[in-house]
Amino acid sequence: xxxxDIRAYCMKKKGAIEDQPFSTxxxxxxxxxxxxxxxxxxxxxxxxxxxxxxxSIEALRQMHEEIIPGYHMNKSWWxxxxxxxxxxxxxxxxxxxxxxxxxxxxxxxKKQKAVNEIESNG
Length: 122
Prior knowledge:
By secondary structure, the chain is of the alpha+beta class.
């Protein structure tokens, strides 16, 4: 997947917004006020940071050399996924789905309801 593919897929998520909250213009994708993806656009190697299940994050990293502990992130929860390796697009989309779901499910019920209402009214 390219960075453009990642951006398009993230923006299809319910209530997703693209933000650039850092001094360096780095695309961050959020649901409500919480990040679920960060595109590393200024590095030599294209990558995306995504949240993953803490109980199986190490196994995922061991299975794929393109997946490493999240760069500048909480390494217990976040991975950096390199986009120039052998990972199938379907796996990358699944990892985006997992990150989104983990973040969405961590929102308060009120925020989840607000996201669902925006989506149904949009």
